[in-house]
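Re: that chain you flagged

S.,

Sorry for the slow reply, it's been a week of failed gels. I finally had a moment to sit down with the sequence you sent. For the record, here it is as I used it:
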Amino acid sequence: MEKEKRVHSFLAALLPWQGWKWAGSDALALYDTDFASRTKGRAAFLSFVVIVLLFWAIYVPVHEFLHVAGCALAGGKVDELVIGRGIGGAYWAKIFPFVTVEPGFGGRISQFDPGSDLGFLLTDIFPYFLTPIGIYLLRHTVRKARIALAGPAIVLSFAPFLNLFGDYYEMGSIIVTVPFMSMGTAAAEGLRTDDLIGFLSGLPGNAAVQAMGWPVALTLTAAGFIIGLVLAGWVYGCSRAAFPPWDGPKRTQQPGEPA
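Prediction finished late last night. Pasting the structure tokens below so you have them in one place:
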């Protein structure tokens, strides 16, 4: 019976909307259980926010180095990885010669050759193999009401949705532009980016858009974003399906509350 439930969960996870539905229910569980009561009050809520932000600062360099690992695993090469000074960029630059430092708290691979489109996809998705760990921690965060686990739980589990305009759009744009590039339309490569917001803000002067024409370029951009939405849902859904089915925790009834 348990095996059948697990198979059913994996099949359900393939539905484009299921991962999003599960993510929504898991996020709501944080606010409908004992965990919510633990974060009430200014001091407790501030501690919760600080823990999440601190882990985010730790996670960003790890995320970027996993991109590097994915690229290397695909047979590619990374020449430059940029890490913000605010999240330890100067420290990492002393250890790895390909790391450069910039102001701020972000990170990105700025110069790399993934070797192939499949290598590019592996480079993009590799950090999200941590998503199952995040979901596992999320369950314990909710069940045990442990604020200390909130940082890694929230950041790791919901990372696919936090990067919809970055890695996931880029994966979608790779998929939709492969046919055009295979037919010799090199301009299609200009639609690939891990910064959709920046790409859209620079549309009027974008050489790829001008070469391919606005209707085609905008259609491919929209299609890439939609595929990114589906991929994010699949990553979360399949990661969640890796664990036994979970109906969610029950909030402890408080004194004086109606049954």
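What I noticed first: The longest helix spans residues 42-73.

Talk soon,
D.
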